[in-house]
Structure formats: structure tokens, C-alpha cells
Amino acid sequence: MAIERTLSIVKPDGVWNGHIGDCVSRFEKAGLNVVAMKMKTLSRAEAEGFYYVHRERKFFGELVDFMTSGPCVLMILEGENAIARNRDIMGATDPKNAAPGTIRADFAQSIGENTAHGSDAPETAAFETSWFFAGTEINKVVRR
Ligand code: ADP
Ligand code: MG
């Protein structure tokens, strides 16, 4: 199994509902290392570019409105199989379908305001991590 990096976002609802720590704690307990982290209120251009693949979807405007409505916590998680493991910890996109004990089942309000983002493949992880972080902002983290 390869060591991967993936982009994780605690979305604005996760911040305003006080779940930053809950999300980070779940990642750390699962053995994923936070190797980069910052809080940022996204501009419309940053959110539109990040979600470019969804630009034709009818929820795109609503998604950009939501993602720019308050600060996000942006993170790069690193570890074995980090991309799929982060998605497992988050749960399904719609909290109604998310498995019990996942971030979205426990904290999300709706399919739109769903608390967390995680890259879905190696190619999207590479694009998404570089969208928000320079190489010099990524740290080496070794557990003791
Ligand atoms: P995921 O975040 O699980 O990878 P998608 O990539 O399909 O899900 O969608 C990106 C984001 O767009 C979702 O996390 C959610 O915030 C929003 N979204 C997806 N589907 C809908 C929908 N039907 N209505 C409103 N917002 C949606
Ligand atoms: Mg997605």
C-alpha cells in the first residue's frame, strides 16, 4: 500500500458548528498525519476553480455560495491509502446515506452543507493539494 497525500477541508458548517477538532481528531486517531493546515475564507474564484469539475451541475452556484460563506480549514493528510481512508472517515456525500460514526453522519446537515471534503483519486488529490498549498507549506511529520 502506498503512502498518499489527500486534501481535506472542514467546510464552513463544520467551522461554525464547532467541529474542527472533531474532524482533526478522527483523522489523527485513524493514523493519518496532518502535514499542512490553514484556515481560509475562500474567494469565489478559489471556490469556482476548486470545484471546476462541477461547473455544469445545477447546484454549482449554491455550492460556491456555501463554500465562500465562512472560513474553511484546509489540510493535507498523509498516510497509507490516505485518499480512500479519508473518504471512509467522512462518509457518503449525502448524510442520509452516510454510515454511522462517519463525520457526515454525525455532523452534516444536508447533501450541500456536508461538513467535510476529501479528494477522490490520486489525480484529484494532486490538483487539489496544489490548488491551496505550495510545496514549501507541506511538512514532514513523523510519529514517535
Ligand atoms: P463529494 O464531496 O462526496 O466528493 P461530490 O464531488 O459529488 O461529492 O460533490 C461535491 C460537493 O457538492 C458535495 O460535497 C456537496 O457539498 C455538493 N453537492 C453534491 N451534490 C449536491 C446536490 N445534489 N445538491 C447540493 N449540493 C451538492
Ligand atoms: Mg468530490
Question: On the 0-100 scale, what is the average pLDDT?
Answer: 98
Give every kind of bound small molecule, once each.
adenosine-5'-diphosphate, magnesium ion
Helix content: 25-40%
Q: What is the strand content?
A: 15-25%
Biggest β-sheet: strands ordered side by side in the sheet: 2-3-1-4
Radius of gyration equals 14 Å
Structural class: alpha+beta
The total count of helices amounts to 7
Structural shape: globular
Termini Cα gap: 21 Å
Number of strands: 4
State the order of secondary-structure elements, H for helix, E for strand: EHHEHHEHHEH
The stretches of 5 or more residues where confidence is low (pLDDT under 50) are none
Largest sheet: 4 strands, antiparallel
